[in-house]
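[INFO] parsing input record for Ricin-type beta-trefoil lectin domain-containing protein
[DEBUG] input buffer:
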Amino acid sequence: METENSEPSRSADARLDEPWDPPENQLLNGKSIASAAAVVLALAAAVVWASMSEDPPAVDADSAAHADFDSDSASGSSPSTEPTESTDPARESESATEGESSGETSSEESASEAAEPDSALPGTGVYRARQEASGLCMTWGEEPDGDRSVMVLGECGDTDPELTWVEDGDRYEVEMAFDEWTPCMTVDDGGTEDGMLVGFDGCDGLDAQTWELAPVGDAYQLLTAASGDLCLSVLKSSSAESGDAVAVQDCDSGDEKQLWTLL
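[DEBUG] output buffer:
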């Protein structure tokens, strides 16, 4: 039975054939969600881009080395093709040893030359004999407390007679040039005893008038050939002053009274 104001009932098939018209509120909510999703995606993309810009990608060691090699090649530098001089340790050691040996030899030679006196003996000539201890020279004078003349010490600028040293190998005779004749300087009594004075006698090649020169530094010891161990000096009681008599004494190279320089 039908009532008033009631709509006639529609069949299910009729409802399906009609188009669906969603409510307006539902459409608005869908648009809002899509917009929000788009904003989120945009922000995420911005964050990712900023992160990639701040941290550049890492370069591995091989790539860096390759880049350095390319940089060197581009700048024009290249490995040297010239051979490198090699050093031989054995040769360097030999050179150093030779240098040291040469230096040592030179030093030893210099020291030897400094230590050795000048051994060159004077040739035949006129010389004055100056004593190292006093600086006085041999000359002719009066015998102390005697009545004859003998060799004494005196001033080198006023010596008499002139003495000529005649070389015969490594030995000498000393000629005394007096006005009347020329004898040779001779040790008294054969020249074999300590303390004998020195006078003169004819030049006969006697041992007592033959002298050997033994270098001591820049001076000489004058040894009489008569004994081989007596040297020209002054009397032991003398202090090597002007007028002191010349005599032979036991040889002592450290005694300046026995050292003479030929001027």
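[INFO] The chain has a mean pLDDT of 76.
[INFO] shutting down worker
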